[in-house]
Amino acid sequence: MKKPDIVILGAGYGGIMTAVKLQKMLNMNEAVITLVNKYDYHYQTTWLHENAAGTLHHDRTRIPIKDVVNLDRVNFVMDTVISIKPDKKKIKLENGELYYDILVIGLGFETATFGIPGLKENAFTIENINSARLIRDHLEYNFAMYQHEDEKNPGRLNIVVGGGGITGVEYLGELANRIPELCEEYDIYKTMVRIINIEGESAVLPGFDPQLTEYAMSSLESRGVEFITGGIVKECKPDCIVYEKEGKETAIPTYTTVWTGGVRANSIVEESGFEHNHGKIEVRPDLRAPGYDDVFAIGDCALIMDGKTNIPYPSTAQIAVQQSETAAHNIKALVQGTEELGEFKPSLLGTVASLGNSDAIGDIFNNRKLFGWKAVIMKKIIDNRYLLKLGGFSLLMRKGKFNIFY
Amino acid sequence: MKKPDIVILGAGYGGIMTAVKLQKMLNMNEAVITLVNKYDYHYQTTWLHENAAGTLHHDRTRIPIKDVVNLDRVNFVMDTVISIKPDKKKIKLENGELYYDILVIGLGFETATFGIPGLKENAFTIENINSARLIRDHLEYNFAMYQHEDEKNPGRLNIVVGGGGITGVEYLGELANRIPELCEEYDIYKTMVRIINIEGESAVLPGFDPQLTEYAMSSLESRGVEFITGGIVKECKPDCIVYEKEGKETAIPTYTTVWTGGVRANSIVEESGFEHNHGKIEVRPDLRAPGYDDVFAIGDCALIMDGKTNIPYPSTAQIAVQQSETAAHNIKALVQGTEELGEFKPSLLGTVASLGNSDAIGDIFNNRKLFGWKAVIMKKIIDNRYLLKLGGFSLLMRKGKFNIFY
Q1: Is A232's pLDDT higher than 70?
Q2: A266-282, pLDDT tens digit by residue?
Q3: Which of B130, B136, B148 lies closest to A134 in CB terms?
Q4: In this complex, do A137 and B144 lie within 8 Å of one another by their Cβ atoms?
Q5: Among A21, B136, B164, B217, who pairs with B54 as Cys (CB 3.0-4.6 Å)?
Q6: In terms of CA atoms, which chain B residue is nearest residue A41?
Q7: Mutation test of the interface with chain B: which of A38, A110, A149, A187, choosing the one with the most B Cβ atoms within 10 A?
Q8: What integer is the mean pLDDT of B33-47?
Q9: pLDDT in tens, A141-171
Q10: B11 vs B365, more confident
Q11: Angle formed by the axes of helices B166-186 and B210-222, to 10°?
């Protein structure tokens, strides 16, 4: 009898964890497991803002797939997914095609620009290692250009972050740490550099407790970050960003707009004909796609409503990792035909947002709030726990964050 | 009686050394010494190619003026010279004006582009700390862009060096060392990067012994450098460089053309009405400008014919430093009115050109040739001797090059 083909698309938080679990849960003779990813490494999306600021090297953020996946057990295909044909059970790749019996879609997010003119062409995004590394270099390049040009262009020293969600705020924190170093490197006075956040709401970090939001804004403002709240980005040009506030349009000269204002599921999901809700597959409690008993969706590609609030659960690394456990368990049940499929039950522990290397805030489950060094430590514990879970003690030792202030 | 005002323009090799010597040779009550420079640091022009490759940090190349000039003794004015009015004994600065009784012009070189279209706008030059730092960052930025762009653009990985003089060849050597590091940092295969030199003559390093030239080219070729000799640069565009060879025009796609093909004296010299020879002041044997007994010119701004060969002495750091001794001696004679003015007699010791951090060639006076590690050591000895001369033991310890292979 043919062994079932299990194909996992994407080696993000959900995808790689599903592969790591399945390689332990299933025997060689039970199934063929194939992991498809664009790069030969997994990366921690939640650390990318540090790479983009230049405060952490991207090699700390990425983990070679071969270091955590047993390649004797799992086939790894480095390729880009073009489309999914669920009715034919086929995946079209840039350089080939794959057949599956069971599919896991963990293709992650892409940036949503909401049709704002110029954003796609002129703004930077913190999406992957390549885009984060480019932002780091773009900042440095503009500082070097500022010093080199005879006619000084202050726009080169204005850094605009569009959007005040977690990624935006965490990036502002890293910038606040990084700018003094850049000023030292490029002989520029700190006071000439502006770090500006534009957020549509009346405060950053929507969804966080107001007391935490206020703490975060004060902490960042004390380190030179300017907040423009209630400002709607109208257009991004190569040399400026235009926003509207209280009916008035203002242009800020800048060559560096980093857009963190929105994400959506990878558009392959929508294009492949799955029933979707704003681009995400509204999965059943067992994480399978409606109408397809052989297709699981996890992470940013999946949508699950919180029954109590009727708001979808947030697309966090925490939830993606928890989903990988349910997905792996259910795939094992399908393959072995022994158990009932289990339901996904998220365990929400709360959220911690860093504010640079020495400050953070945490909105912990059960209404506990954390500030300052306690939140900094909590953040590192979360990051380190993930590494331990993914690659054991040796991975933790190689990539973990142990220095309290780094 | 009014103390004479000695004004030194430029803190390059010749200017700063003249200031350092004069602060020891003259008493406070004998003269007022003023040093004018665009930056608050002196830099070693002959090390800039290392900063431009990213193999040496620019802080190693530059020396704060206050570290070597006694500011209780010498007035330092950080400003840019706009023009010299020798008949009025005045210097126009960007932010003011200075009167002098005795002037030393040590304003250095600027790049000569020989009217080649686009070179001024689109090529980079290794002229100062700012331009070298920009090249370093431009290389990195293009590697990052290459990885980020969906459509791969091989031109981003082509680096073209125009001109095969000492600076060009030394820069090629540093690039050959640096590229493997950049490839590691940006996940790029080494074989995809091209380092290309375009030189009009049939070999690089004109003036050097042919055996040395051949050694240099072989050494660089073995590390991946491509030489296009007999190639004339016709145009530099933002995305390519066009050269002609044997009547045929070829365009190489590149975003990084570093032009090392020619230098000329700072054009302020010519514009200020001095009698000049290709922009340089053909100084008298005592280094004074023809017709002006109160104006000395040194370094790249001065031209001195070698009586034997009827070819001008080269504009090297070696000669600029030697000229500062004659200039300082003669200024002292003018101020004190006691001695005869001395004549400048260059002592040509030879030239060493590095080929990266572990190879070099040396054309030493009396027809001695050096290759490989002996030349590497000789190069470091020359660099270290200068530091000792300029700022004594403490400067040597801070900025010297002691690691044989670094």
Answers
A1: yes
A2: 999 999 999 999 999 99
A3: B148
A4: yes
A5: B136
A6: B187
A7: A187
A8: 97
A9: 999 999 999 999 999 999 999 999 999 999 9
A10: B11
A11: 10
Contacts of A147 in chain B (CB under 8 A): 130, 133-134
B357 three-state secondary structure: coil
Band (pLDDT 50/70/90 cuts) for residue B350 is confident
Domain range annotation of chain B: 5-111+264-348+389-398, 119-259
Check if A80 contacts B (Cβ < 8 Å). Answer: no
> Across the interface, which of A131, A144, A147 has its CB nearest the CB of B148?
A131
Chain B interface, mutation test: which of A38, A51, A62, A130, most B Cβ atoms within 10 Å?
Answer: A130
How many C-beta atoms surround the C-beta of residue A192 within 10 A?
13
Residues with Cβ within 8 Å of B248's Cβ and at least 6 positions away in sequence, in order, are none
Exposure string for B260-290, b = 16+ CB within 10 A, e = fewer: bbebbbbebbbebebebeebbbbbbebbbbe
* Same fold for the pair B5-111+264-348+389-398 and B119-259: yes
Cβ partners under 8 Å of residue B365, min gap 6: B348, B349, B350
- Greatest pairwise CA separation for chain A in angstroms: 74
Residue B366 has pLDDT above 80, yes or no: no
d(CA B121, CA A304): 55
Which pTM does this prediction carry? 0.92
Give me the pLDDT at residue B339, please: 81
pLDDT in tens, A244-256: 999 999 999 999 9
Beta bridge partners of B370: B362
Chains A–B, number of C-beta pairs less than 8 Å apart = 43
Which of A324-338, A355-369, B20-34, B43-57 has the weakest average pLDDT? A355-369
CB pair distance less than 8 Å for A141 and B145? no
* Averaged pLDDT for residues A47-75: 96
Q: Is A127 an interface residue toward B (CB < 8 Å)? A: no
Residue A1 has pLDDT above 80, yes or no: no
Q: Does CATH number 2.40.50.140 belong to domain B5-111+264-348+389-398?
A: no
Dist CA B361 CA A76 (whole Å): 49
What class is the A119-261 domain?
Answer: alpha beta
What pLDDT is stored for residue B406 in this prediction? 46
Question: Is A170 noted as a catalytic residue in this protein?
Answer: yes
Q: Do A134 and B140 touch (CB under 8 A)?
A: no
Cβ contact, residue pair B140, A137, below 8 Å: yes
| Alpha-carbon distance A128 to nearest alpha carbon in chain B (angstroms) | 9
pLDDT above 70: percentage of residues in chain B: 99
The pLDDT, as a whole number, for residue A314 is 87
Q: Which among A130, A131, A144 has the least Cβ separation from residue B133?
A: A144
Of residues A33, A30, A34, the one with CA closest to residue A1: A30
Question: A13-44, pLDDT tens digit by residue?
Answer: 999 999 999 999 999 899 999 999 999 999 99
Architecture of domain A5-111+264-348: 3-Layer(bba) Sandwich (3.50)
Say which of B137, B145, B147 has its CB closest to residue A144. Answer: B137
Q: Which CATH architecture has domain B119-259?
A: 3-Layer(bba) Sandwich (3.50)
Q: Which of A50, A170, A174, A199 is catalytic?
A: A170
Decide: B264 and B109 in contact? Cβ < 8 Å.
yes
Q: Does A153 touch chain B (CB under 8 A)?
A: no
With an 8 Å Cβ cutoff, are A130 and B148 in contact? yes
